[in-house]
Amino acid sequence: MCGVWPGRATVVGVARSDLADTAAAVQAAGGGFVAHPADLGGGTQKDSAAAIAGILARTGKIDALINNAGIIRRAPARDFSEADWNAVLATNLSSPFFLMQAAGKWWMETGRAQAAADARLKLVNIASLLSFQGGITVPAYTASKHGIAGLTKALANEWARERINVNAIAPGYIATGKHPGPAGRSVRNRAIQDRIPEGRWGRPEDIADSVVFLASPQADYLNGTILNVDGGWLAR
User: With b meaning 16 or more CB within 10 Å and e meaning fewer, what string describes 144-181?
Assistant: First the structure.
């Protein structure tokens, strides 16, 4: 996400899929949108650096980087393939690190000097309940999300004095098109709701609002935090 804060942001969507629906939603809310096609599934330093350079060429600066791309592969640990392991770690852990590395390097070498004296770069990662729990038949996903939590803390330790905030959000169960929540026919979905202290699945807006908070000046003194947006699931 790039733009001037406070006020309406210009959102840069980085994806290998079509972003027309996202663009329409951002523009309907009064923001600007720039689509930047890229496939970061390889998890390489080169691709991530090129993506950040391309964004800067089009927008001039980055105020906040939101690492929300992720994939999951399911199989028993004894049968988990090397290809699935590498794909999940590349997308969920390597790409976020190299994107933050490139954005942080730009900020420390160029961006900070051009910004206002109190401006900060905000880096927000999407962690998971499986940053704290083990899950079942998702060893690579669990490893990657534990890694995101650790990486968030490690970079916060290094970069807090550079006026860079590195935080993460650990979403709980969120009702989306893929996971419809208790409205779905799954008995498990209803059982999940019964375990959530808030008594409901989360909404996408619950995560979006938390991202906006971490990207705002109100979160300037938060660094290395994993914010659980889970309706109390982990406290149960």
Answer: bbbbbbebbbebbeebeeebbbbbbbbbbbbbeeeeeb
Q: Is 173 a catalytic residue?
A: no
What distance lies between CA 228 and its chain's CA centroid?
13
Catalytic pick among 141, 159, 201, 233: 141
Q: pLDDT tens for residues 57-83? A: 999 999 999 999 999 999 999 999 999
Q: Quick one: which H or E segment has residue 11?
A: strand 9-15
- Global pTM reads 0.92
* 199 to 122, 181, 195: CA distances (angstroms): 32, 12, 7
pLDDT tens across 108-145, in order?
999 999 999 999 999 999 999 999 999 999 999 999 99
3-state SS class at 64: strand
Q: Is residue 12 packed enough to be buried (19+ CB in 10 Å), middle (13-18) or exposed (0-12)?
A: buried
Decide: 5 and 27 in contact? Cβ < 8 Å: no
User: Which residues are bridge partners to 227 per DSSP?
Assistant: 169
